[in-house]
Amino acid sequence: MRTDRTFTMLKPDSVEKGNIGAILEKITASGFRIVAMKLTQMTMDDAKAFYAVHSERPFFGELVEYMTRGPIVAAILEKNNAVEDFRTLIGATNPAEAAEGTIRKLYAASIGENAVHGSDSDENAAIEGAFHFSARENVLKNILNTKKPSITEGFFML
Ligand code: UDP
Ligand code: MG
């Protein structure tokens, strides 16, 4: 049986501060497997579409500015109970309220610039993963459904 997936972004503040390595280490040490990953940058249209659910909120303009001001790391992660466990790992939206040891407690500066994104449901994880990754980039897509191959084996199967 396939394990669950979630989608994350290491937001521009994490990249600017040089925190990519530390955050990825925390994610993989917590049992998440990286299924797809890239350094990319969102356009204004990308950010408006990605956060469309928040378009009427007062912080929307700032959120779009922040999310487009520099590169992000986008990744699809896999683990049993991925969505819920990843939300626990990142902590509350506001780092002041985030539990000790969570990524936002450790690396976020404010409720706006809060270091990482984590999908809030299985449905949104799939939508958000597909927003950032083509089927071809999602290289381990089908292989992990059936068995546990080596990466090399996976590439031969493409
Ligand atoms: N955000 C903000 N001010 C707020 C709430 C949220 O700037 O009062 C930003 C913040 O970057 C957050 C994002 O908007 O991560 C999306 O908000 P959401 O409520 O979905 O929080 P999340 O799911 O990221 O914890
Ligand atoms: Mg959210």
Helices and strands in order, then pairings?
Layout: E1 4-10, H1 12-16, H2 20-29, E2 33-40, H3 44-50, H4 60-68, E3 72-79, H5 82-90, H6 103-107, E4 116-118, H7 122-132, H8 143-146, H9 151-157
Antiparallel strand pairs: 1-3, 1-4, 2-3
Model description:
This protein is α+β, with helices and mostly antiparallel strands and 158 residues long. It has a single domain, classed as Nucleoside diphosphate kinase-like domain (Alpha-Beta Plaits, 2-Layer Sandwich), CATH 3.30.70.141. It is built from nine helices and four strands. It has a four-stranded antiparallel β-sheet. The longest helix is centred in the last third of the chain and has 11 residues. The protein is globular and about 35 Å long. The C terminus is likely disordered. Bound molecules: uridine-5'-diphosphate (UDP) and magnesium ion. The site of uridine-5'-diphosphate has 10 residues, from helix 4.
Task: Provide a short characterization of the protein structure.
This protein is α+β, with helices and mostly antiparallel strands and 158 residues long.
